[in-house]
């Protein structure tokens, strides 16, 4: 077997099929209330993410996933979440915002423009 055939076989073995149409990452970082960076947890993320998980589960769709993440680096904007593969960042503030993101974006394929944030790096 030549080196190029070996490399091609290795590439094929590592290919992972896309199993999710949407994969949501939600920051669960909890810092002390007086921390200078703030945190999604300190800004009330937990009940929003719990609702998000239940709403996603209620869709019955196995192609939508949610993953609890650590810090997503935009702490003072929190709570924040990002939806891949689109790379859309949302800043939900209420249970109704979560419902709208699930119904409109994750199920319906339409972005919720009013909740999108554009992180500056």
How would you sum up this structure, described in words?
This protein has 121 residues and is an alpha+beta fold. The chain has a single domain, classed as 3-Layer(aba) Sandwich (Glutaredoxin). It is built from three helices and five strands, in the order αβαβββαβ. The chain has a five-stranded mixed β-sheet, covered by helices on one side. A hairpin with a 3-residue loop joins strand 3 (81-84) and strand 4 (88-90). Helix 2 (45-59) runs parallel beside helix 3 (95-107). The longest helix has 15 residues, at 45-59. The radius of gyration is 18 Å and the shape is globular. The mean pLDDT is 87.
Keywords summarizing the entry:
single chain, 121 residues, alpha+beta, Glutaredoxin, 3 helices, 33% helix, 17% strand, globular
Number of domains: 1
> What is the count of β-strands?
5
Q: Termini separation (Å)? A: 46 Å
Main CATH class: Alpha Beta
What is the CATH architecture descriptor? 3-Layer(aba) Sandwich
Broad shape: globular
CATH evolutionary superfamily: Glutaredoxin
Give the helix level as a range of percent.
25-40%
Would you give the CATH topology?
Glutaredoxin
Quick check: average pLDDT? 87
Largest sheet: 5 strands, mixed
Strand order of the largest sheet: 2-1-3-4-5
The secondary-structure element order is HEHEEEHE
Radius of gyration: 18 Å
> pLDDT under 50 segments (min length 5)?
none
Number of helices: 3
The helix/strand class is: alpha+beta
**Approximate strand percentage:** 15-25%
């Amino acid at each position: 077997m030549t080196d190029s055939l070996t490399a091609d076989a290795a590439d094929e073995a590592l290919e992972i099929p896309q199993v999710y149409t949407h994969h949501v990452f939600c920051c669960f970082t909890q810092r002390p209330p007086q921390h200078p960076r703030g945190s999604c947890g300190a800004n009330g993320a937990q009940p929003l993410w719990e609702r998000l998980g239940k709403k996603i589960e209620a869709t019955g769709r196995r192609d939508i996933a949610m993953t609890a993440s650590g810090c997503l680096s935009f702490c003072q904007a929190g709570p924040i979440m990002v939806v891949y593969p689109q790379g859309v960042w949302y800043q939900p503030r209420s249970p109704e915002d979560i419902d709208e993101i699930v119904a409109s974006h994750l199920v319906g394929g339409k972005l919720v423009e009013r909740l999108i944030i554009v992180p500056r790096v």
